[in-house]
Amino acid sequence: MSRYTAASEIREGLTVIVLTDAAAGAAAEIVPEAGNNLFRFESGGHTVLVPPSSVRSLKEEPFAAFKYGTPILFPPNRVRNGRFAFRGREYRLPLNEPPDNHLHGEICSRAWEVIEYGASDQGGATVTSRFHYALHPELLAYFPHPITFTVTYRLFEGQLRMDTKIRNDGEDEAPFAFGLHPYFALPFGSGGPLMLKAPAAAEWPVTNEAFVTGLPADTPFSEALRDGADIADYPPLGCSLLELDGGEADPVCRIEMQDSRYAIVYRFDRRFRFLVLFRPDWAEAFSLEPYTSVTDAFNLPYGDELTGARGIGPGEELRFRASLGVEAL
């Protein structure tokens, strides 16, 4: 019997891809029809991600596509008034967080196409899905760039890896801002410490909607995170925006549940230069959100090298990697 399996199930009318690693006691569930959301991950007997109350709710509950599992963000966070300019072109995005903001883009709620899935002892359990802007004229009407996203989730030796390819198949440079939004399951009500370690170089001052209000600086909080800061009392609906250490190594973040003697370990590509911390008030969860740019970067009065605002050229392909795992303390 193989250690790994990959299966397709119909659950509440939606297709769910289930990846398992029997030896590690690990399982991941992805729903391609609802934003290709990795909505469940467990490993070693620990729940890592907060799932929705039902799979169907990801399609039917207002804002649920943003609130559970691992939403894929393009662009990440908010665009004030849904408007910005890039290379002389004006963009007007729908105000999906009325009355004033565009929030997190639309690929986190749209259906993705499953390309393949399978399992082997050598490669683990995998599924690859794709989203073409070119197939959605209603999206091209306000974002006229045929961008293609291809995501592979791979469960191997108890760890879940996410490899993303993003390609501009159009003839014009497109504005580019990308992020991930995992909701990690944390026991906030336990009374024990929840220690977060992150390679924070500085902290940007932000509003509670993550809009930037000034320039970054090393703060007592960003300094504490480098060695480990207790986030057990982090306020619900609070958020922080960190600039990460720009060294050669990929960033690694750890959330240690010291009373329960385990840690969630989140690694991601160093092309993600920024990290938003966010605690929702609708679940016992905490988000570490890696971004390629700060919130609303194209509307800020600072240089692109500071904010991460950039484009993706015609024919250009960008690749990103993130991984999740559990370690004993």
Characterization of the model:
- The chain is mainly beta and 329 residues long.
- It has one domain: Beta-galactosidase, Chain A, domain 5.
- Helices cover 6% and strands 45% of the residues.
- The protein has a nine-stranded antiparallel β-sheet. The chain has a five-stranded antiparallel β-sheet with strand order 1-2-3-4-5, with no helix packed on it.
- A hairpin with a 6-residue loop joins strand 24 and strand 25.
Task: Give me the secondary-structure topology.
Elements: E1 4-11, E2 14-21, E3 26-31, E4 37-43, E5 46-47, H1 57-60, E6 72-73, E7 78-80, E8 83-86, E9 89-92, E10 101-103, E11 113-120, E12 124-132, H2 137-140, E13 147-156, E14 159-168, E15 174-176, E16 179-180, E17 183-185, E18 194-197, E19 200-204, H3 220-227, E20 229-230, E21 239-244, E22 252-257, E23 262-268, E24 274-278, E25 285-291, H4 304-307, E26 310-312, E27 317-328
Antiparallel strand pairs: 1-2, 2-3, 3-4, 4-5, 6-16, 7-10, 8-9, 11-12, 12-13, 13-14, 14-27, 15-26, 17-25, 18-20, 18-22, 19-21, 21-24, 22-23, 23-27, 24-25
GO molecular function: carbohydrate binding; isomerase activity
Organism: Paenibacillus arenilitoris
Protein name: Aldose 1-epimerase
